[in-house]
Design a protein that fits this description.
Length: 261
């Protein structure tokens, strides 16, 4: 059994894997201020699954928040009593990423890796998180590039922080695109606006690819946006953890081969 965790800008997404994702959860990253809190969180997952520490063979972790790495890595090591593996952009990937010249977040790579196991390219993987990212896999199965935008809730907070008469509001789905008050107008922009943005960008991406592309959506805000989309989208809530599981399986295979040799 493998413990998996992704350290994101808003949440830590964590889970247990043995042939499939057995259980998973999210926890606000700002509350993980010390190793003790992270350890308590991970132990609660083991108790929920009725799994002992001795059954956890290892841990695989990815991160886009380097300053939180030590807290999570140290806690994870105490859970499995083995040194955790930290996935990085230098990790070996089963698809070509050479078209991208910048630093490519491991969360984006992991989601694409998992999607390639389930869907035939070309496709677009949309991750609705702190940022909304669109990640394009072309017909050859290579990473072609993507789009990065402010996330749904990030955009709402930015409006409240940057204007004098707009304030933070609870996030929920509006009933109509035409808002009848300021809060409804903001929510319409966040939901209908994000959905329309996605539809428009997918059309432009398909035009550049010269082919229709499946749309695969994941991330903490995905369920809030999907109902407002007029395009067909495949919802994959565990895509990121499944990408980590693929890396775990690869590391296990390499380890077994090394022992045989």
């Amino acid at each position: 059994m493998i413990f998996l965790a992704n350290i994101g800008n808003t949440n830590v997404n964590y889970g247990l894997y043995e042939k499939r994702i057995l259980a998973s959860g999210y926890f606000p990253i700002h509350l993980l201020s010390c190793e003790r809190r992270a350890l308590a969180l991970f132990r609660s997952l083991l108790r929920k699954c009725r799994v002992s520490r001795e059954e956890v063979e290892g841990t695989v972790i990815s991160s886009v928040v380097p300053e939180k790495n030590a807290i999570i890595l140290n806690a994870a090591e105490k859970i499995s009593q083995t040194e955790p593996v930290l996935i990085s952009s230098r990790t070996g990937w089963e698809f070509d990423t050479s078209a991208y010249s910048g630093v490519l977040g491991t969360d984006r790579l992991l989601c694409c890796s998992a999607a390639l196991q389930k869907y035939k390219p070309p496709f677009v993987v949309v991750d609705f998180g702190t940022a909304t990212t669109l990640n394009v896999i072309d017909s050859s199965g290579a990473f072609a590039g993507g789009v990065i935008l402010p996330g749904v809730r990030t955009g709402l907070r930015a409006l409240a922080a940057s204007t004098s008469q707009l304030h933070e509001i609870p996030f929920f789905g509006p009933k109509s695109a035409i808002g009848k008050n300021t809060a409804e107008c903001m929510l319409s922009g966040a939901t209908f606006g994000t959905a329309a943005m996605l539809e428009g960008l997918v059309r432009r991406i398909e035009k550049e690819l010269g082919a229709n592309a499946d749309v695969i959506v994941t991330g903490g805000n995905a369920k809030a946006i999907i109902p407002y989309c007029e395009l067909e989208a495949r919802y994959e809530p565990e895509l990121l953890l499944e990408g980590l599981a693929i890396q775990a399986n690869r590391l296990i295979a390499v380890s077994k081969k090394a022992r045989v040799e």
